[in-house]
Amino acid sequence: MSQFRYSKDHEWLREETAGIATVGITEYAAQQLGDVVFIELPEIGKTVSGGDVLAVIESVKAAVEVYAPVSGEVVAINDRLVDEPELANKDPRSQGWFLKLRIANPTELNGLMDDDAYAKYIAGL
Amino acid sequence: MSIAPTLEADRPKRTALYPLLESAGAKFVSFAGYWMPLQFPQGIRHEHLHTRSRAGLFDISHMGQILITGADPATSLEALVPGDICGLSGYQQRYTQFTNDRGGIRDDIMVTRLPEGLWLVVNAATKAADLTYLDGNLEGQCAVSAQQRALLALQGPEAARVMESLCPGAERIPFLHCTRLLLAGAPVLVHRCGYTGEDGFEISMEEENAESCARALLQMPGVELVGLGARDTLRLEAGMCLYGQDLDESTTPVEARLGWTIARRFRQEPSAARFPGASIVLKQLLEGTVRLRVGLLPDGRTPARAGTQLFDADESTGGQVTSGGFSPTLDRPCAMGYVATRFSKPGTRLLAKVRDRLHEVEVSPLPFVPHRYFTPASTKETL
């Protein structure tokens, strides 16, 4: 199984099959957000550049944008989040995944952090 | 001495309860010059629902407590507010506003008549300005003194039971009245009021006694700490205004649908009203206003937050959301805002523009969640 990679905005990305990556938010992000009440996901087929707004999370507290960790095309979304947005709080690594991206430019993955680098990053926040 | 005093002054202050809140795991935010607890580890939704079902304890010591003394402080204060202050009986409390010359709202406040004078509770963000304003306007008539005290709120259906065992007598205080009592051995001024729509109390005490009082309350079954996050969602469900968001210097009490807080004497005899902007406000009471505060219920799950623009079907501007979020009680988004008067009827359909997408919303009566204040009728039932 391929490893998790992380953006500075607390999204995780994992390449599941060649060129297709699952994207979600980290436990740190989920904890900072508080109770998630609604998640606005993009439409399948949407093309994004790294850093573009990919989704919006509405918590009781505020609305927070989720950015594309890399450029690509949305090829799947997690429909379960529509009725169970709390999965993003309870199980952000697995059942609370957001969407799958077809990676446009694999070299962009090099700009993301690995587990160790991300752990150090959040320890310094 | 090495640190510039201005830096020290700019830094948010801590309330007397800060150490207790910190040890309870509070996540602090800087709010109106204070480090205030946004939430505790269980989160806003839990704190909110706990307050609606049992009892929530809030530190609201950031709010200003002011005592006005003098020969006739009620008559003096009535020159500044539209509320019936002279009509207050002893230990009775009333909600009113400081208005400006245009009838806009400088602050919204609670006023109680005590034997020694008038007791005011004002907003944290406006308290310094309020003190200056009161000093300037009551000079020669009254003495205005800021009270360095702590203020706790205990809110929820179990609040009265908790107070009955810790602070006997409090459970019999009528809504919008107060009494001096002892809580955990400390002298306290207890009001029956709050900002959640539930039965509850606001308890004022010397700062040195705040922690022992809070600990005594927290030891009671059913009492949990609640932060500013849930305070905001609770008051929004209860249809209550937040100064700075739903009320400001450009909004009149009539536009805000607070006409019920204007003294009947002034409505019957406008020439008796001396508060700033009285002619404008009383004219609006008779003739109406071009915009009104309303409740708003979005159809879907997307909250319409403060600043969201509202449109009618022709996509012409219809108003703006001033407070909006998610209602944990109703498990759906809710909001309040100002709309053109022609759109203010409950049931009116409008469109809210959230992130460039139009979402359907319906104008709704306020409050979203019915108030459950203590009433004399429920006294009879419990006796």
What is the fold-level CATH name, i.e. the topology of the largest domain in chain B?
A: Gyrase A, domain 2
Quaternary structure classification? heterodimer
Main β-sheet of chain B: number of strands, strand sense, barrel status? Answer: 6 strands, mixed
Structural class category of chain A: alpha+beta
Sheet with most strands: strand arrangement of chain B? 11-12-13-10-4-14
Q: State the separation between the terminal residues of chain B, measured CA to CA.
A: 61 Å
Helix and strand composition category of chain B: alpha+beta
Query: CATH homologous superfamily name of chain A?
Result: RNA polymerase II/Efflux pump adaptor protein, barrel-sandwich hybrid domain
- Our count of helices of chain A gives 4
Uncertain residue segments of chain B: 1-6, 378-383
Helix content of chain B: 10-25%
CATH class of the largest domain in chain B: Alpha Beta
* Low-confidence segments of chain A: none
- The pLDDT mean of chain B sits at 95
Please name the CATH architecture of the largest domain in chain B.
2-Layer Sandwich
Question: In percent terms, what proportion of residues of chain A is strand?
Answer: 35-45%
Provide the CATH topology of chain A.
OB fold (Dihydrolipoamide Acetyltransferase, E2P)
Biggest interface between chains:
A-B, 13 and 18 residues
β-strand number of chain B: 20
